[in-house]
Amino acid sequence: MKSLLKKLIPKPIIQSYHYILAQLAVFYYHHPSRKMIVIGVTGTKGKSTTSYLAAKILEGAGFKVGLSSTIMFKVGKREWLNDKKMTMIGRFALQRLLSQMTKAGCQYAVVETSSEGIAQYRHLGIDYDVLVFTGLAPEHIEAHGSFENYKGIKLSIFKDLESRGKKIVKFKNNDSSNSSNNCSSISNIVKRVIIANGESEYAKDFLNFNVDEKFTFQASSVKHQASIFQVSSLNADSQGISFKINNTQFNSSILGQFNIMNSLAAINVGLSQNIGLEKIKQALEKITTVPGRMEVVYNKNFKVIVDYAHEPHSMENVYKEVASWPHNKIIAVFGGTGGGRDKWRRPKMGELAAKYCDIIILTTDDPYQDDPAQIIQEIEKGIINNKSINNKLYKIVDRKQAIKKAIDLAQAGDIILVLGKGCEQKMALANGKYIDWDDRKIVKDIIDEF
């Protein structure tokens, strides 16, 4: 019904509806983002992990932090997984969450910001202070009409930051030397900051705005105004990642070469808020895993990893990473999202699986109104065209049974990759129906049954 209405109602009317709702939400909750320093994270990949790491760095420095991301929501110490199937929740829900953060005394809000959210004005009324650009690659093209439109939507919030007026926030300060033992306040003029992935070919576009400070990060250096921090000794293996910034050694148990760049993005958030490298290092090294992002949920005679990778670029990153580790066979369990989402990528997903994986099990992801069997067939085309004699292919529509099959087939030294949903708490079916889901729990339940 929802998709039918979108086709019947003229786009300007739909846009006006989104805009008016956003304005009402901001008015109703009294502009909560004006009372905090707001960090927005956008880009095609790495948004969720960067947001999570940035929030933990700020928290480790002693600040009270709120977080809204694909992975989870956070208001101070209270954290819960995102069960809404949205990166940016609805306008009223997001403003309500920001309001809860201010009432809880949060000094910072980290908001993962998606192109779809911007297009539907969910960002409206959020006074961003720091914007992080993680990179750009073709995605959501069917939703936005073209890559240029997709890029332009993301650029729009950077343009808004440039034109943002002066912002002052007041932080509560518990001063033990104050004999009255009352809370005092510290007023801060908030700088406008852009942090960009310098390895992206589009970095210049996102840095081309007049703000107070700019940071650029890449695998060899971090640049801030006239200062340059040298990045060296990069390493990623089955135990985690490590690198140096100047003479400070960073060791993290989060997995994946690509997470070095996500870590650098988050480190820049800390630097932009005058947090020292040693303090940032301490916060990062306390993080054992990012929920649903290269998360090892079983690691005994074989290994099971759950990851959110659901499109060719991120899936290939995962495959390449795991292929570099000691292993016997790589077993991949994945499907493709329905709902008209980037159908072009389905054969490519199959092609990559055939290139890197020994055993491929195609299954359901979030089919929405699409036929899961049809999605599997479209992925299979890419496998058939690139299949080697060593590939084994299974097609099991029931995702739980597909995961069970992978575990049944696993032998010592194998690595099972359960891809596409990460720590998502719902699966989207036809007619607007959602069922409870968590790949990580299903893996654990199946293994417990053995």
Give a verbal description of the structure.
- The protein has 450 residues and is α/β, with parallel strands linked by helices.
- Helices cover 37% and strands 25% of the residues.
- The strands form 4 sheets. Strands 4-3-2-5-1-6-9-10-11-12-13-14 form a 12-stranded mixed sheet, sandwiched between helices.
- The radius of gyration is 22 Å and the shape is globular.
Keywords:
Protein-Tyrosine Phosphatase, Chain A, 2 domains, six-stranded mixed sheet, 15 helices, twelve-stranded mixed sheet, 450 residues, UDP-N-acetylmuramoyl-L-alanine:D-glutamate ligase
What is shown here, in short?
This protein is an alpha/beta fold and 450 residues long. It has helices at residues 2-8, 11-28, 47-60, 91-103, 115-119, 141-144, 147-163, 203-207, 258-272, 277-285, 312-323, 345-356, 372-384, 399-409, 439-449; strands spanning 37-42, 65-68, 72-75, 78-81, 108-112, 130-133, 168-174, 183-189, 193-197, 213-217, 221-224, 227-237, 240-245, 248-252, 295-299, 303-307, 330-334, 359-362, 392-395, 415-419, 426-428, 434-436.
CATH topology label of the largest domain:
UDP-N-acetylmuramoyl-L-alanine:D-glutamate ligase
Q: What proportion strand?
A: 15-25%
pLDDT below 50 for ≥5 consecutive residues: which ranges?
174-183
Question: Considering the protein shown, what is the CATH homologous superfamily of the largest domain?
Answer: Mur-like, catalytic domain
Give a count of the beta strands, DSSP E runs of length 2 or more: 22
* Global structural class: alpha/beta
- How far the N terminus sits from the C terminus, by CA atoms, comes to 42 Å
Strand order of the largest sheet: 4-3-2-5-1-6-9-10-11-12-13-14
* Helical residue percent band: 25-40%
Could you say which overall geometry the principal axes of the C-alpha atoms support?
Answer: globular
Q: Provide the number of structural domains.
A: 2
Mean pLDDT: 92
